[in-house]
Write a structure and sequence with these properties.
The chain is an alpha+beta fold and about 110 residues long. The protein has 4 helices and 4 strands, in the order H-H-H-E-E-E-E-H. The chain has a 4-stranded antiparallel beta sheet with strand order 1-2-3-4. A hairpin with a 5-residue loop joins strand 1 and strand 2. The longest helix is centred in the N-terminal third of the chain and has 21 residues. It starts with a helix and ends with a helix. About 10% of the residues have low confidence.
Amino acid sequence: MPRIIRCALFLSSLLFLSSTAWAEMNDKQALERVKNQPSKEGVSLDAYFEEQKSQAKMDLGWKIYPRHNGSYEVERLMLLNEKSPTSFKWVVDRDGNIKPINGKAMGVTK
């Protein structure tokens, strides 16, 4: 087999392996993608929630839930009043795309 064909096959197999590895997002990567997403305030969502902690009664932190299709649901919970926690939810799909899935998340995500 000519050398050029072997090189082309080798490079195409590397590209396939790297794209396969990216498609398999894990929970930590999903969380980091949401935290780094821009907020409507012009800072990352993580920085936005750090600022909000001073006004909250209690910070309940980040939660990550795997979904059946390989995506992740990422949630930020804060107790803003005495009644019940406020939930901000996003879905991160297998390709790393982020979508807010409740009104609270839509309100803070750019």
